[in-house]
Every structure is written in structure tokens, then in C-alpha cells.
Amino acid sequence: MPIQLYGFWRSNAAFRVRVALALKKLPFEEIEIDILSGRQFDTAYAEVNAEHVVPTFVHDGHRIFQSLAIMEYLDDIWPEPRLLPADAKERAYARSLALVSVADSHPFIVPRVRKHLGAAFGADAAAIESWCKHWVDEGLATYERLLTRRPPAPFALGPAPTIADICIAGQIVMANLFELDLAAFPAVAALGKRCFELSAFADAHPIQQAGYKTENGHH
Ligand SMILES: N[C@@H](CCC(=O)N[C@@H](CS)C(=O)NCC(=O)O)C(=O)O
Predict the structure, then answer these.
(1) Ligand 1 atom index nearest CA of 110
(2) Which residue ranges make up each domain of the chain?
(3) Do residues 172 and 202 lie in contact, with contact meaning Cβ atoms separated by under 8 Å?
(4) Whose CA is nearest to atom 12 of ligand 1?
(5) Is 12 in the pocket of ligand 1 (CB under 6 A)?
(6) Pick from 4, 11, 20: which is nearest to 69 by CA?
(7) Rounded to the nearest whole angstrom, what is the distance from the C-alpha of residue 55 to the centroid of ligand 1?
(8) CB-ligand 1 contact for 54 (6 Å cutoff)
């Protein structure tokens, strides 16, 4: 049974899974759920994902949600190339780096949060944009401090990309979409350059997805 990924061109969490699948050279079918139009709440998708978010990964008729859980599952089933180091301390550090974006920055800027800022607190588009830029910037600043403390060699954990690099690259994708300057974050920018030189990262970028191209064709 082919691998399926319910995702969306702009979804940062789906970006992470697309990179992981590409690094492992696993072909998959992506099913678009337009989260900007509220399709995550449709009955059919609500049955697939009780959290009403993307991504959802389907393998062997089994569904997995949460990008970090999906990436760890990929590593369990298809161990090469490893996305998590074998050593316990290094694994913990890889997960810690990943969670800076996954748990502590990205959740502030997702559509449901942006919508709630407007609906519950009357925030206008400019205020919501400023909120998002703030939290993306905070994540970048944390990564800059971490990468300065332990410089990439050449990736965050060593010679090959791991979940840490995938999530740091995702943070850069957020910066790209909000047109934030990376000049203040040279270590992050250098790691990002290294990552996006790899097609697994470059091809997974939102601007390379069919949905982005269609959307921008409309403007
Ligand atoms: N922590 C989750 C994030 C899931 C999530 O919030 N996904 C966003 C897109 S990146 C979404 O579907 N949002 C829908 C909404 O906010 O209504 C993961 O890493 O998979």
C-alpha cells in the first residue's frame, strides 16, 4: 500500500515530513487539505485526524499524526539514513533542537491561533502578522544561541542531517514566508544554506509545492 500524506503546501509540519520522506527516498502521495479554507474541519478529514490539523501520515492502513512522531516512526521502520542519532545524549539533543520549533515557536503562528487572535481579541491583519513575526523571530534567536554554543559540523548533530536540521530548516521556511531577514542569525542562515543545497530540503519548501504555484497564479 503506498504511503499517503495529508498535508498542505504552506504547512510547516508537513514540510518537516516531506523532507524526512525525501531523505529516506520514500515515494508518497500527498493529499491536500486546504487549512486556510477550513477543510481540516470537514467531516471526512475530522475522521482521519481528530486534532483537525495536518499532517497525517498513512502507512499499511495505519494513521500517525504529529510531525515528530511521524519522523520517529519513519526512522523506526526505515532506519537508513538515520534521522535520529543512536547515542542517547545525542538523540536527546536532536529532539530538544527539534522541539524548539515544533513545540515552542511554530504552535503560536498556526491558523487556529491567528483566527482566535482576531475573533477573541479583535486583532487586525497587521497585529496578527506582527505577532507571528515575533514568535518566528524568537525561535530563530534561540536557534542562533544554540548553534553558536555548539557549531554545526557541518549539520547540527554532525555529518548528516537529522530531525534537528529539518526543524531548523522549517523555522527558516517560516521566516521566508513572513519575509524576515536572517542577517541577525548568521549561524542559522549558514546551516539553512547547507540544508537547502540538498534537494530533499529544497523540493519540500512551500514555494515548490503545486498549491503555492496555483495560489500565486491567482494574484
Ligand atoms: N505539532 C503539530 C502541528 C500541527 C499543526 O498545527 N498543523 C497546522 C499546519 S502546520 C494545521 O493543520 N493547522 C490548522 C489550524 O490551525 O486550524 C505537528 O508537528 O504535526
Answers:
(1) 16
(2) 3-81, 88-202
(3) no
(4) 53
(5) yes
(6) 20
(7) 7
(8) yes
Confidence at residue 184, expressed as pLDDT on a 0 to 100 scale: 97
Q: Is there an atom of ligand 1 within 6 Å of 53 CB?
A: yes
Give the C-alpha separation, 189 to 176, whole Å: 11
109 C-alpha to ligand 1 centroid (Å): 9
User: 119-133 pLDDT, tens per residue?
Assistant: 999 999 999 999 999
Could you report the per-residue pLDDT of 181-194, keeping only the tens digit for each?
A: 999 999 999 999 99
pLDDT at site 217: 56
For ligand 1, mutation pick of 40, 49, 54 (most atoms within 8 Å of CB)? 54
Query: What are 169-183's pLDDT values in tens digits?
Result: 999 999 999 999 999
Q: Which fold has domain 3-81?
A: Glutaredoxin (3.40.30)
Q: Is the CB of residue 101 less than 8 Å from the CB of residue 170?
A: yes
What is the amino acid identity at position 51? Answer: E
Amino acid letter, 2: P
Residues 197 and 205: beta-carbon distance below 8 Å:
no
Asked if 4 and 29 count as a contact pair (C-beta separation under 8 A), the reply is: yes
**Mean pLDDT in residue range 18-42:** 97
Architecture of domain 88-202 in this structure: Up-down Bundle (1.20)
Q: Which residue has the cell 503555492?
A: 212
The answer, yes or no, to whether any atom of ligand 1 lies below 6 A from the CB of 171, is no
